[in-house]
Amino acid sequence: MSALASRPETSRTSLKVRLVGETAELRGVVRAALQGLAEPPLEITEFEPSTAPGVDANGNGDAPADVTMVVFNGNEELLLNYLHVQAAQAPRPALFALLPGRSAGLMKRVLRAGADELLFLPLDGGDATRALLKISEARWRAQRRDGGMIYSFASIVGGVGVTTLAADLALALNYELKQRVALLDLDLQAGGLAVFLNLEPEVTILPLVRLEKKLDSMQLESALTKHSSGVYLLAAPRRIEEGELVSDLTIGAVLDLMRQLFDYVIVDCGSHLDENAVAAWERSDRMFYVLDQSVRAARCAWRFIDLFDRLGLGSVEPHFILNRYVPSYPIGIKQIESSLTRPIYAHVPRDDKAVERVELSAKDLWQVAAGSALAKSIEDFARRLVTGPEQLAGAQPGLVSRLLSAINPR
After folding, report:
1. 181 and 323 share a domain?
2. Domain of 119?
3. Torsions phi, psi of 318, nearest 5?
4. 102 in Cβ contact with 120 (< 8 Å)
5. HSE of 266 in the Cβ direction (CA atoms, 13 Å)?
6. Is the terminal CB of the chain with fewer CB neighbours within 10 Å at N or C?
7. In Å, how far are 92, 93, 404 from 81, measured between CA atoms?
8. What is the dihedral of CA 203, 150, 161, 204, to 10 degrees?
9. d(CA 54, CA 37)
10. Does 124 share its domain with 184?
């Protein structure tokens, strides 16, 4: 597990920051604080608020910025007007206001002028890093992603239903929302997706591992197995020991190409976390951690949170799915959320009758129990992912809540 925690972060290009302040001395203090941040990499250009847009403090032209930071410590009207003008630019940069204090009046005026983030002087390194990383990661993901969405499912507790949830979500996206969907089985030793879907793949991911040339769409399509629903599966190798041949480089290339071919790619990472799982998380638009209502599952989820934080995968945050949920069980959603200090993104009900019908018939949930509570819950989950935008349970606090917190600190 130590190899995971020490995995180097994927390289990113520098974030272009336009630093706006009335004096060189003031800009210099903020610049020094920004240059002291470990991440993200920054390319800083200084501006005076009285200069024309795109002309720096030395009168030189400048390319559009990713972030404009306006330091309020002087002529407030001039700086507010600068913010207002920047907010109307196209493309519009992210606008940060750096304030000398927590004046509610100035904070409101700054927000009305178009500021996206409020930071305070002297600049706190942690607050600045979090705000800048959010912009950096959003830009990196937008540049990198061109095609469908990738959702990963994982747990470090076996038997909580990772494979079932991943497969059922793929089926719901296909049956109910008419999306083109593929499944990737990264639980390489168990190979559970093929079993769950009652498939016997003639070809698995293994031929893609042995390619000497760059992977192309024809090679990938030849390795896929089609389910009767229309969902495609890239199956785990037939033999347990062959799973060791699959590398994170192969997974990265496969997912990058699958994104081009499908609307949604669902990845079953199982309960064995390794370099392949990290490669999937790096490319995922959402990562879901699955647990049930047991003390063991909650404690293991904490271990996962610790690992995920140490990996530094700022491009994706884990969302928590409570599977086989029973409302009357003593350990409820509130207790689990309190234990994790994280919200539960969604809960899926326990439905033994529907599961039994699926297992006995060797058919999928929508073929034998389409009207069940379990099927309806998975469909609601799929719609939530597709229809967006939404209030993500697990997103960072919004601007209004951060404003209230800043005005009324505890």
Report:
1. yes
2. 2-143
3. -70, 135
4. yes
5. 26
6. C
7. 15, 15, 24
8. 10
9. 25
10. no
Whole-number Cα distances in Å, 91 to 5, 63, 66, 87, 88: 37, 11, 9, 9, 9
CATH number at residue 246: 3.40.50.300
Q: Which of 165, 166, 127 is nearest to 280 (CA)?
A: 166
**DSSP alpha helices (H): ranges in 146-228?**
162-175, 192-196, 206-209, 217-223
Task: Find where tokens 């404690």 sit.
Answer: 299
Here the tokens at position 243 are: 């799973």
- Answer yes or no: pTM beyond 0.70: no
